Amino acid sequence: MKKGLLLLAVAAFAFTGCDKVANIENFAISNTFEEKVTLDVTDADPNAFSKDFTIDAASDSDFKNNLSNISSYGIKKLTYRVSSFTGDDATTATGMAQFYEGNTAIGAPIDMGLISFKALANSGNITEISVSNELKKTIEQKLLDNNSITLRVTGVISNKPMKADFVISMEIEALVRV
Q1: pTM of the predicted model, to two decimals?
Q2: pLDDT tens for residues 86-141?
Q3: How is 55-82 classified by DSSP, letter by letter?
Q4: What is the dihedral of CA 123, 170, 97, 90, to 10 degrees?
Q5: Over 91-148, what HEC string results?
Q6: Exposed/middle/buried for residue 153 (C-beta within 10 Å: 0-12, 13-18, 19+)
Q7: Rounded distance between C-alpha atoms, residue 170 and residue 159, angstroms
Q8: N or C: which end of the chain has fewer CB within 10 A?
Q9: 103-129 burial, b for 16+ CB within 10 Å, e for fewer?
């Protein structure tokens, strides 16, 4: 009887140990992908602007080394900041953000609200862009399919000339299976 209980205890430990090893077979990697783009508008340019930001998972070595084993992506946060600005202090823009796969729009455009360049550049504040859960899931699937996605930011500027450096950041986590 004692031998049977000992065998049962060893078997239970073996099964529990295997579950713990199975948990180690999956791990998460994360990175904040950043891209800086300069918006340089002269008096001769139109007031409207459009800039593309490409998020490419292969640009990070941890993601690149695990691309074939990534089982899912998770979008944690999408933000922007204005790192520098020259122009009239009152210069603002109304902005929209739209995700693309190639030339095909993904989901609905996201209203970025009123962008006050001087105030954002002076404060250093990071502004989060609200992305719906449904759109996040679509973007995550597109990343799984293609490893990259493009975010196009468009807007209309109130005053020119002006020059601003935008930094768009997307925090992404990936689940990797071993």
Answers
A1: 0.80
A2: 999 999 999 999 999 989 999 999 999 999 999 999 999 999 999 999 999 999 99
A3: EEGGGSHHHHHHGGGEEEEEEEEEEEEE
A4: 10
A5: CEEEEEEEEEECCEEEEEEEEEEEEEHHHHHHHCCCEECCCCHHHHHHHHHHHHHHCE
A6: buried
A7: 29
A8: N
A9: eeebbeebebeebbbbebbeeeeeeeb
141 token code pair: 């699937």
Name which of 59, 154, 64, 147 is nearest 105 in CA terms. 154
Nearest 5°: the CA angle 100, 105, 110 is 85
CA distances from 89 to 43, 75, 112, 121, 151 (A): 16, 34, 20, 11, 27
**Using CA atoms, how far apart are residues 155 and 50, in angstroms rounded to an integer?**
7
How many CB atoms sit inside 10 A of residue 151's CB? Answer: 22
- Report in angstroms the alpha-carbon separations of 21 from 25, 27, 66, 69: 7, 12, 19, 18
Asked if 158 contacts 92 with a C-beta cutoff of 8 angstroms, the reply is: yes
What torsion do the CA atoms of 138, 133, 49, 162 make, to the nearest 10 degrees?
-140
